[in-house]
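Justification of resources, computational component.

The compute hours requested in this renewal are based largely on the per-chain cost of generating structure records like the one below. Each record pairs the submitted sequence with a full structure-token output. That output is archived, and it is also reused by downstream analysis tasks.
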Amino acid sequence: MKSSPVGSCVQQFWMGRVDCHACELAASMPMATLDRRRHQADLVQLGSYLLPAETPVILKGDPADAVFSVRSGFLKLWQYDDCGVCRIVRLLRPGDILGLEALFQPTYAHTATTLNRVRLCRIPSELLRRLERQEPDLQHEVQRRWHHQLQRGDEFMLSVVSGSSRERVLKLLRYLAKFAAPEPCPRIRRLDMAAMLQISSETAARVIADLKKAGLLETATELRFDPRALPPLQHAVEKIVNGVTFSGQDALRH
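The structure output for this chain reads:
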């Protein structure tokens, strides 16, 4: 099997060995259940990475030799469906774990790309498997986080990917505000919105343009908007469509 081309791509963003004692986020990371002094020799095997936006971390089908703990920033997990259409199947945020399939299978199931600047801790999969056998609390914590990520994916499919195209974009904004809190929403490209919502990128662009025109959304480096303004935001989006004014739920049906 050929070596992973992503490995060298990520390697150039290596920041050094992880220092869990000095990490201000250690308490919120999955390794927080470990006795750091007793496992000091294990923890030095973890690597710290700082990646810019739009950087691939893992590729679908590549050898799965590590999992990654997300310290800061946001990522998208995606793959092509049977028709060759790109589908974003999940978003990850700080505290999530990327590549957990490495514990059970030889290759990665999805491609993961950063949405903004991301800090990651790389954990060799063999090390994590051994630590889970030795430390039941760590195994429980990893399983709990994975279960939460899967639940969040189900919630997204049921609560966001339904309704008209315009409804889906507006639901996505509400979802992102909750998903990213307390951080600002990551900037999502129109193509990525289409891949998440199963709509055309042109429709996503029109809705976003209407929101920006109404002064309800900024997209320079992040998605900035007030979630509390979403009810009037819906009205603002729809009232300028075809020059017709709608209100309330009537607007969402058009």
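The chain has two domains: 5-159, 165-252. The chain has a mean pLDDT of 81.
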